[in-house]
Amino acid sequence: MLHSSVFWKNHFEHNLTKQRVDWSLRPAISAHEKQNILYSLKAWQLGETSDGSHLMAAANKYAGRINDPVYPEAVKLFITEEQKHGNNLGRYIDLLGETRLKKDWGDTLFRKIRYLNTSMELWTITVIIVESAAQVFYTALHNATACPLLRQICTDILIDEAHHLKFQNERMYILFQQKKFYNKAISIGLYAVLFFATIHAIWFAHGKALKAGGVAKPEFMKQMYYRFFKSMQFLHAPQPQEATALQYPEARVLF
Ligand SMILES: [Fe+2]
Ligand SMILES: [Fe+2]
Known about the structure:
CATH class: Mainly Alpha
Radius of gyration: 18 Å
Number of helices: 10
Helix content: over 70%
Distance between the termini: 25 Å
Structural class: mainly alpha
Order of helices and strands: HHHHHHHHHH
Number of domains: 1
Number of strands: 0
Mean pLDDT: 90
Bound molecules: fe (ii) ion
Shape: globular
CATH topology: Ferritin
Largest sheet: none
């Protein structure tokens, strides 16, 4: 089932009104827990605070091509939700009396890729991979601490991320349908390479926090492969009704 851009715009507008974190709580994190997760907490906080201008540029260009003026509005709200995650994590870091990261190698690398990226397809597959990793990471972060405030922040993010993944998987489906058979096969291969490289970079950077949350490397890889295969499987599902009805015009794709 594919949802329209209007549906997603309404979803994000409604979801942004939900306040699931009780800020009257104060951090209650042990020194040991903090030592395991602090670097990753700061790095993900930085990663969630992008202004989204490059994604917006790609979304505007793409929406003009497919004549869907509401799509950029939905993407804008999606970015706002990511920034909310960054704000909440930042507020928690401040309450711990720690300083927020201004620079991180993973974030710098990802920002460089974003800067060069004007393709909606490349944006979407990258976001799908990162959102999938976010689901595993924030679950591990939640389980790596007994701090009720941090757990609430993670739960709130996880509720949002589940919808982000659906939003992006649906867009990927629409983009993927424009390809011919061999193009589809080559694209899946390239997505897999991107996926493989990204999950290893994430494990390298955040393995310590993931392990503290009970996710050892084989488990991380297993969970990531499961999510990736689910996303790829969705691309090959029988064509959902709304996609046929809307008859999306030919969209320029990367590969
Ligand atoms: Fe997020
Ligand atoms: Fe997200």
